[in-house]
Amino acid sequence: MDRFIQEIKNTADKVAKKSGELVELSKVKLHIGNTKSEINTNFKKLGEMLYFSQKEENDIEREKISEIIDKIDELYEKLADFKEIEACLTKKKLCPQCHKQNDTDSAFCSSCGYNFEDCE
Ligand SMILES: [Zn+2]
Q: How far is the CA of 83 from the centre of ligand 1 (A)?
C-alpha cells in the first residue's frame, strides 16, 4: 500500500516538474481511480475504528486517527493534482481553475483568465 502511494507521489512530482515527459491520459485516469478508491479505503478504516471504539467502549486511538486523516488529506491533494493534469491532457481546454469549457483555440480561459500555456 505504501509503495503504491510512493509511486503516485513520484508520478505527481514528475509531472509537477514539467519535465517534458509524455504523460498518458489513460494512466492519469487510472491514478485518479486508484486515488479515489484509496481515499474510500481510508474512510472505511476510519469508520471501523470509530465503530469498534464505540462498541467496545475503548478510547479512540487519536494518533491512529490523525494518521489516517493526514493520509486522506494527502490523497485529496494528489487527486486535485491528477485532475488538473487530466484537464490539461484532454485538450478540450477545460479550465483547471474554474472548470469552464473553452474553445480549443483559446489561449486564456474566458471565465477566469487562466493561461492554458501553463498546461504545457
Ligand atoms: Zn477558468
A: 14
